[in-house]
Description:
Blueprint: E1 3-5, H1 7-15, H2 23-26, E2 29-32, H3 33-39, H4 46-53, E3 59-62, H5 77-89, E4 93-95, H6 99-107, E5 112-113, H7 115-124, H8 130-138, H9 146-153
Parallel strand pairs: 1-2, 1-4, 2-3, 4-5
Helix pairs in contact: 3-5
Amino acid sequence: MILVSNTSPLCYLLLTGHADVLPKPYGTVHSTQKVLEELRHPAAPELVRDWAAAPPGWLKIHPDPVEPDQTLAALDPGERTALRLAGQLRSDMILLDEAAARAAAVQRGLKVSGTLGVLCDAAQARLLQLPVALDLLRKTNFRASPQLWKSLYTR
């Protein structure tokens, strides 16, 4: 499976202590230099910056794709480069949390998941307990509708 990730799923999985579940169901995770820069940004949590300073072997960092795509101009740089990389690699799935980026991925025919999808997949594979992971995620600034939270807790 070819999986590309943007910044936010990596960040939230790190903050909840669950980044290590990524390679178990998905294998190598591909991302871009811009995403790595965002993870290393001084405003990022220290835990995230420390992890990004020496990323694990399962995270393959690619140079930022340089082809201009004006349809992605409204997205942040990490999202733009992740979407372009997913297209170049013909990825099986891309991890994005932001609604506009997810919509752009769907328009490009990409299968999309995000932090919650990874946690659900990991729970199904018995790699974590979903309610515990959700409680940890809710302690961050991750946003989801009350209905979505409720549906996840009742799985």
